[in-house]
UniProtKB/TrEMBL annotation:
<dbReference type="GO" id="GO:0016491">
    <property type="term" value="F:oxidoreductase activity"/>
</dbReference>
<protein>
    <submittedName>
        <fullName>Short-chain dehydrogenase/reductase SDR</fullName>
    </submittedName>
</protein>
<dbReference type="InterPro" id="IPR036291">
    <property type="entry name" value="NAD(P)-bd_dom_sf"/>
</dbReference>
<keyword id="KW-0560">Oxidoreductase</keyword>
<dbReference type="InterPro" id="IPR002347">
    <property type="entry name" value="SDR_fam"/>
</dbReference>
<dbReference type="Pfam" id="PF13561">
    <property type="entry name" value="adh_short_C2"/>
</dbReference>
């Protein structure tokens, strides 16, 4: 018997890319599938690709009235829902200063509000023991931040709270909620970027250098993980986030640091909350199992501008100054791997400020308690 025999699955954004691959996978494993999208033409093409018995529903999940209509249509045609894959989303990018209110609203309307109410409004139509999977099209809590992604990342990061809260609230009904975070994946979005074929190929090759497995993922590879999470094989998994990124979230590549060399000399970052999103003049060296980033900055830059540019590494150590040159000529972020991992931040100016602040608090407390 197939894993999804006699099950009903709804896939938003099921007319292309990861959504289409997932709908096809669920259909092959016996599910009665409903795909949802805004474009009637691509929905029709998707139904032909998937096969017979697929229900296509044209709807915009950013509009609550259309979400209501979606679930009414699905339950009337197919019955109550066993699997919900919340996949619809949009990716648009701009710097902080260039992000307009309309762009911000669009990103949140689809990526956050749309996903939230797609999940929330499905609850009355879900069977007990159903499975819900949400998607973020990039790691939603990466250890670094890229320029031009502030609004997009904020919208996607909200999905983690939604997924984890829903997992707790729906657990009494046996409903599981999980999240998948794919890395770079070969979907039509790259062909729709407006670049020439040659530039698109160059861009894909460039992206592949940031992935330890040296390639982009396939939609079918994401679909297989979604199918696993949706099945009874994952019956004890809920509230979790699965990264499908070829190891990209675990290793920051030399390409990302401005060097095209292979990732084998990259710096391990999983578990770090902040690292510079760019180091224009840097080098990575391996020495006795230790990964170091040496970042130079000129005398005109203060310690605080250094921190603003590069940040500090959690579970790491910032060493201000070096044996050569003046103290503010050179800085070093040093991360210890494996058993040598340390958790201190050594920075004389900040340490002095912390001591002064503590002294001030003690003094104020003493004055407040004085008769």
């Amino acid at each position: 018997m197939k894993r999804f025999e006699n099950k009903v699955a709804v896939v938003t954004g099921g007319n292309s890319g990861i959504g289409l691959a997932t709908a096809k996978r669920l259909h092959e494993e016996g599910a009665r599938v409903a795909i949802v999208g805004r474009n009637a033409q691509t929905l029709e093409e998707a139904t032909r690709t998937i096969g017979d018995g697929v229900l296509a529903v044209q709807a915009d999940v950013a509009k609550l009235s259309e979400i209501d209509r979606l679930y009414q249509t699905v339950t009337q045609e197919l019955g109550r829902i066993d699997v919900l894959f919340v996949n619809a989303g949009v990716g648009k990018f701009a710097t902080l200063i260039d992000t307009s209110e309309s762009l911000y609203d669009e990103l949140f309307a689809i990526n956050t509000k749309g996903a939230y109410f797609t999940l929330a409004k499905a609850i009355p139509y879900l069977n007990d023991g159903a499975s819900i999977i949400l998607i973020a099209l990039a790691p939603i809590n990466p250890p670094w931040r890229r320029p031009r992604t502030s609004a997009y990342s904020e919208a996607k990061a909200a999905l983690r709270a939604v997924a984890q809260t829903a997992a707790v609230e729906l657990a009494p009904q046996g409903i599981r909620v999980n999240l998948v975070s794919p890395g770079p994946t070969l979907t039509p979005i790259y062909q729709q970027a407006g670049l020439s074929k040659e530039k698109t190929e160059d861009r894909l090759k460039q992206i592949s250098t940031t992935v330890p497995l040296s390639r982009l993922g396939k939609p079918e590879e994401v679909a297989s993980v979604v199918a696993f999470l949706a099945s009874s094989d994952a019956s004890y998994i809920t509230g979790e986030e699965i990264h499908i990124d070829g190891g990209r979230g675990s290793v920051i590549s030399q390409h990302f640091l401005g060097n095209r060399e292979r990732h084998s000399q990259g710096v391990s970052l999983r578990g770090a909350n902040e690292l510079c999103n760019k180091i224009s003049s840097s080098k990575v060296e391996r020495e006795r199992g230790t990964s170091r980033i040496h970042a130079k900055f000129d005398q005109r830059e203060s310690l605080f501008s250094f921190f603003r540019q590069f940040g500090c590494v959690q579970n790491g150590r910032f060493l201000y100054g070096s044996k050569r040159g003046k103290k503010k000529d050179r800085g070093r972020i040093e991360r210890y791997d494996g058993q040598q991992e340390r958790g201190s931040i050594t920075c004389p100016p900040l340490r002095c400020m912390a001591l002064c602040g503590a002294f001030l608090l003690v003094t104020l407390a003493a004055l407040a308690n004085a008769p």
